[in-house]
Design goal:
Length: about 450
Amino acid sequence: MLEKKVLVVDDDSLMKDFLKEALRRSDYSVDLASTGEEALEKIKDKEYDIILSDIRMPQMSGMELLKVTKEYLPDAKVVMMTAYGTVENAVEAMKLGAFDYVMKPFSADEIELVLKRAFEHKRLILENKLLRSELAGKYRFENIVGKSPQMQKIFELVEVVADTKATVLITGESGTGKELIARAIHYNSSRKAGPFIRINCAALPEGLVESELFGHVKGAFTGAIRKSRGRFELADGGTLLLDEVSEISPALQAKLLRVLQEREFERVGSGETIQVDVRIISTSNKNLKEQIEKGKFREDLFYRLNVIPMHIAPLRERKEDLPALAEHFLKKYNLENKRSIEGISQKVYEMFMEYPWPGNVRELENYIERAVVTSKGKILTPSDFSKELVLSKAYFSSEAIEVGCSIYEAEKWLILKTLETEGGNRTKAAEILGISTRTLRNKLQEYGLKEESGDQ
């Protein structure tokens, strides 16, 4: 069990003895100090989770100790104890960073409840710091896979603009990793300690997008049973990602433009103006200039969003990233699924290089995850992947079947090519082709190739 360390500071010996006995019965590790100076010496030598201090003490007061404690132990929770008539001092202590205060006299149960809340609060803060640290590490440039010249240019641009307030518009086909780049911008900026809030503009009904963005007051519309904060408020001090921003209606585009210009808005149903400090990043899988020409997107909003444009190339245009991406996903899903696949065969890489990847990086990730989960071998081979990938036209482009050839010739070529990719293994080839091994054997007999194509 994790030791819970408390320092009790009070010039009243009876109070110290009472707290020492009560807290130790509740499994706290308790140290005692009679003065602020004595407490300060202990704080310099030892870390405490909670400082439980009286306000009125001779020489160094509890208020002075509070200020010094925040310098030496910024993560410690300070709880002030005060007698009746000094509530004003206790409130002042809260303003200076105290976690809470208790009025004397109090029971053992009362003080234990306060300490329990203090420990829970500290635990949540530490967990939050750890999570943010892990996220920041995950989105460091070196942890984003992409060695192609196109991705290297993106990384360079991210590094330049991350710590600015400029709005960023990231475009590219679905599955190229636009959100990953948006998060990299956030977690490599001075806003990384603030929230990263995302709204998928394409996934919400048109009538709900305004409420989701700006919030609403109780009774603003049917079903608004309580006040709700919108994504702009939640993202205050951090970053708001408008995912697929092209799907926002023209009417809402005008309101969004005003927020970008004025940095203020009103909740739905309210006249109260709310000011926020939010960095805006938008993504789109559509060509917004074409949307402007069609009258579906405001030109003035486009220029507000497009201060820093970034375009993520589709995977088919940066296939040099394929091996590193595949290895990355192999490690990821080995770990998640407690598998131990050792690698990916060269035949698979050849297949990957020929495939057009219409679903981009997301499609590759799905294929690797499925293969890791279902494979029975130590190395991923073409038989571990779906037929549409293995038998794609692009894979056989170097020997594409000419229009005009007979079905017999096309079938023979496809069967022999599949056998070749599987090193002559008829069981795996039949599985890929979607036929039984008996049917495959009969076909090989028909082609007069029975002897040359045995199982391995």
